Amino acid sequence: MEMIYTILYPKKAIEDIQNLKAPKLADKAENLCKSLTINSIPLNSKKLYRNLVGKRSIRISLQHRLVYEILEDKKL
């Protein structure tokens, strides 16, 4: 059975997506978020270290990345 994840967006994340200058970047960020509901660890994501241990990132563009965390204890 395929696991479907719920995405919780902090207010700052919503503001950041809306403030992306190019509409294509905002669309790509939204599509990446939607794809994470089905596949929480896509092949192109990377584990983060140091002060971001436990989080992962996916590139939106060379300048921008989407940082997220999977909360296993919050599965629905």
Task: Kindly describe this structure.
The protein has 76 residues and is of the alpha+beta class. The chain has a single domain, classed as RelE-like (YaeB-like fold, 2-Layer Sandwich), CATH 3.30.2310. Helix content is 29%, strand content 16%. The protein has two helices and three strands. The protein has helices at 11-18, 23-36; strands at 46-47, 55-59, 65-69. Strands 1-2-3 form a three-stranded antiparallel sheet, with helices on one face. Strand 2 (55-59) and strand 3 (65-69) form a beta hairpin. The longest helix has 14 residues, at 23-36. It is globular, with a radius of gyration of 13 Å. The two termini are 14 Å apart. The mean pLDDT is 85. InterPro entries: RelE/ParE_toxin_dom_sf (IPR035093). This is Probable toxin of toxin-antitoxin system.
How are the SSEs ordered, and which strands pair?
Elements lengths: L10 H8 L4 H14 L9 E2 L7 E5 L5 E5 L7
Antiparallel strand pairs: 1-2, 2-3
Q: What is the percentage of strand-forming residues? A: 15-25%
What is the gyration radius calculated from CA atoms?
13 Å
CATH fold group = YaeB-like fold
| Assigned CATH superfamily | RelE-like
Proper CATH architecture: 2-Layer Sandwich
H/E order of the elements? HHEEE
Helix content: 25-40%
Count of runs of 4 or more consecutive helical residues: 2
Number of domains: 1
The strand order across the widest sheet is 1-2-3
Q: Return the CATH class.
A: Alpha Beta
Structural class: alpha+beta
Largest sheet: 3 strands, antiparallel
Give the overall shape: globular
Count of strand segments: 3
Taking the alpha carbons of the first and last residues, their distance comes to: 14 Å
Low-pLDDT windows of residues: none
Mean pLDDT rating? 85
